[in-house]
Amino acid sequence: GIQVEQSPPDLILQEGANSTLRCNFSDSVNNLQWFHQNPWGQLINLFYIPSGTKQNGRLSATTVATERYSLLYISSSQTTDSGVYFCAVKGWDSGGGADGLTFGKGTHLIIQP
Amino acid sequence: GAGVSQSPRYKVAKRGQDVALRCDPISGHVSLFWYQQALGQGPEFLTYFQNEAQLDKSGLPSDRFFAERPEGSVSTLKIQRTQQEDSAVYLCASSSGGQGNEQYFGPGTRLTVT
Known about the structure:
The structure holds 2 protein chains of 2 kinds.
Chain A lengths: L3 E4 L2 E5 L4 E7 L3 E9 L5 E6 L3 E5 L2 E6 L4 E6 L8 E9 L10 E2 L3 E6 L1
Parallel strand pairs in A: 2-11
Antiparallel strand pairs in A: 1-3, 3-8, 4-5, 4-9, 6-7, 7-8, 9-10, 9-11
Chain B lengths: L4 E3 L2 E4 L5 E6 L6 E7 L6 E7 L2 E4 L8 E4 L6 E5 L8 E8 L8 E2 L3 E5 L1
Parallel strand pairs in B: 2-11
Antiparallel strand pairs in B: 1-3, 3-8, 4-5, 4-9, 5-6, 7-8, 9-10, 9-11
């Protein structure tokens, strides 16, 4: 099945810093989503971005589908940005476990005041 | 409500008991997914419904796991004869179209088997 690698696994920054999180995937995708998992375990949708560039406030994301990677940018970090960021993808196959999203292991982000 | 809801939020079961976990998807969403998230890991796909049809159940870890969505709306994930390794957070997600559409997740049910 499709493989997803996220980097870095851990990131500690001071409040106000900028950060870039990376997601590499092994095959063509028809779905790519970025999530923030808050301390209570809720997965919060950040971007649905199988290709192209999107921006939402201090967050933006770019997916270069032909090169099989996506980047999540966080600018002017705040302590509330802390948590785990997941990239999840779905390839074009169906059945045999391929119908759901495949998640990376996540980036654990800590923003210190 | 507007989002995906799950109940119960927490469940403690003794080893060998049966449990049933409920998911209410976003109204009108045809696709429904179940995932299992172990501590410190990303969620892993279990099964997928399109309306009432279970189209993919290859992620279910054993025949003790069973899911249904009889009327194409609410879904139940049932685990029979629970084992300690079943302890995890069980997440439900729904989407408005097929598997390629954006998925929205519920808050999860944290299952602890003692």
